[in-house]
Amino acid sequence: MTTELLRIAGLNAWYGESHILHGVDLSVSEGEVVTLLGRNGAGRTTTMRAIVGLTGKRTGSIQVAGQETIKLASHHIARLGVGYCPEERGIFASLSAQENLMLPPAVARGGMSVEEIYAMFPNLQERAGSPGTRLSGGEQQMLAVARILRTGARLLLLDEISEGLAPVIVQKLAEMILTLKAKGYTIVLVEQNFRFAAPLADRFYIMEHGRIVRQFKQAELEQNTGLLQQYLGV
User: Fold this and answer.
1) Residue ranges covered by each domain of the chain
2) CB neighbours of 134 closer than 8 A, spacing ≥ 6?
3) Which CATH superfamily is domain 33-45+79-232 in?
4) Alpha helices in 67-132 (DSSP H)
5) Which of 36, 85, 111, 139 is the most core-located residue (most Cβ within 10 A)?
6) Structure pTM?
7) How many other C-beta atoms are found inside a 10 Å radius of the C-beta of residue 79?
8) Residue pLDDT, tens place only, 96-142
9) Which SS3 state, helix, strand or coil, does residue 13 take?
């Protein structure tokens, strides 16, 4: 039996007066990799931000490991073991790579040690003393993910981590996701790069206009190529 780690039901979210999410329903089981697909503006990033309490008004239900979080502040949600890696990465220019890595506090038990992180990301160990903005785009992305692994988060929300990176770096990120999955992490991906996400995900949700319009499993990927062409143009 799989354990449901994240359940979203009837989620609505706003930025100011703008109503972005319209009754989103989805679930993610422990140890799964799930990808949210859709065109820009479909509501995928807003869904991620709503999970961690970074939108404005939210209504509906968001349960993490069975605990209702819709009224919780972001720092309380983080302490349930939720880590969010935003598209903009948030690397501090004035801090070295290692200082960036050590900046967030531990929020839950079981975070990776610095030694484990450097074993997974040897480039970061080599660049430990370099200012954050001297790192390549790929190294900055690895640092952004590594930073949340140290906190003890087990539910990882990764937003467009392959965006603008060279194919060799994208391949390393794919290997990283498979390694984390093997270690029992649960991962929700937002990706424009369908070719990156396709072999990694156990299940796919397609979003359009702030709603989930379809979902299917990895085994059903081939039979849904027409659907993907319709919604994504891939």
Assistant:
1) 33-45+79-232
2) 127
3) P-loop containing nucleotide triphosphate hydrolases (3.40.50.300)
4) 74-78, 97-102, 114-120, 122-126
5) 36
6) 0.94
7) 16
8) 999 999 998 888 888 999 999 999 999 999 999 999 888 999 999 99
9) strand
